[in-house]
Amino acid sequence: MGIGKYLTSMSVIGALLGALGTARQTQAMPKDWRRYLVWGVWAAGLVLAVVGVAKQVDDEQHAAELKGRAAYR
Fold it and tell me: What confidence tens digit (pLDDT) does each residue in 9-56 have?
């Protein structure tokens, strides 16, 4: 599993760039639990982007299986 597919994925790039906006937003916030919540939501979005890229191959295989099944009908 190469790292290149993650670095070239627009979803991962967008999630990483979202850290800039999150950093700007949290600078003006009081230093309490809400700041950690905002960073947690950003981290969850990044994880979803990475998992989406990782599962892309499985999705393509599943689509090919479904296409193959449709050909037999």
Answer: 888 889 999 999 999 999 988 889 999 999 999 999 999 988 888 887
Q: How many domains does the chain have?
A: 1
Minimal CA–CA distance to 46: which of 72, 71, 21, 65?
21
Q: 42 vs 21, 23, 26, 58, 62, CA distance in Å?
A: 10, 10, 11, 25, 29
Smallest Cα–Cα separation from 37: which of 63, 54, 29? 29
Domain limits at 36? 4-71
Query: Quick one: pLDDT at residue 1?
Result: 55
pTM of the model: 0.72
The residues, ordered by sequence, that sit 6+ positions from 22 with a Cβ below 8 Å of its Cβ are 38, 39, 42
Q: Residue 49, class by beta-carbon neighbours within 10 Å (0-12 exposed, 13-18 middle, 19+ buried)?
A: buried
